Amino acid sequence: MLGHTNAIANIAVRDLGRAKNFYIGTLGLSEVEAMGEDVAVLKSGSSLVNVYRSEFAGTNKATAVTWAVGGDIDRLVKELKLRGVVFEHYDMPDTKLDGDVHVFGDLRVAWFTDPDGNILNLINQ
Known about the structure:
CATH topology of the largest domain: 2,3-Dihydroxybiphenyl 1,2-Dioxygenase, domain 1
Number of helices: 2
Strand content: 35-45%
Number of strands: 10
CATH architecture of the largest domain: Roll
Distance between the termini: 25 Å
Order of helices and strands: EHEEEEHEEEEE
Helix content: 10-25%
């Protein structure tokens, strides 16, 4: 039913201006539409991300958005660090940390947060 329809990620933030600085300025997404002072529609590849103001910003304790970056993960982690992104380090079974990248066999994942604490990640898929 919905399997052939694109989905859009929604990220709650407290300060839309600060969030746009992060998502556009730091992560490199582009704004495709502004809906007043409450919502910005951003583009990441062929996907859309709605960033919207909410009093519940940052309350999700799970990953909100994943970017599948393939073999570019290590290069992107380095570039994001240069832009001020701080990566999260989690203690997980059967996982080793290679710099800021968690390694599970062939799977490589790097987690970070936006200014509101929303959890984001890069994965080598």
